[in-house]
Amino acid sequence: MPFVRGIGAPELIIILVIVMIIFGVGRLPEVGGAMGKAIREFRKSQTSSEEDTEVDEETKEEEEKSAPKSEG
Questions:
Q1: Cα Rg of the chain, angstroms
Q2: pTM attached to this predicted model
């Protein structure tokens, strides 16, 4: 599968030309800014999701330690 190896320079040039044709040269900064914001928000949501998961695990561990164990 050639895509697994990664995207090289020729592929990036082709993508850039297609984007320039679709959006025009004047709107490229706007499109780039929007994509940058989207990527930042995606990474931020992933990070906060991982932190929430860690907090949930810590809370469960604390509850298990403080919960009285019934022996019988």
A1: 24
A2: 0.49
Distance CA 39, CA 9 (A): 21
CA 45 to chain centre: 7
- Amino acid sitting at position 27: R
**Alpha helices (runs of H) in 1-72, residue ranges in sequence order:** 9-23, 28-66
How is the chain split into domains, by residue range? 16-50
Residues of 19-30 as b/e, b for ≥16 C-beta within 10 angstroms?
eeeeeeeeeeee
Amino acid at 56: D
pLDDT the model gives residue 18: 92
Q: For 32-53, how does the pLDDT look when each residue is reduced to its tens digit (9 = 90+)?
A: 899 999 999 999 988 887 777 7
How many whole angstroms separate alpha carbon 23 and alpha carbon 35? 13
How far is CA 15 from its chain centroid? 21
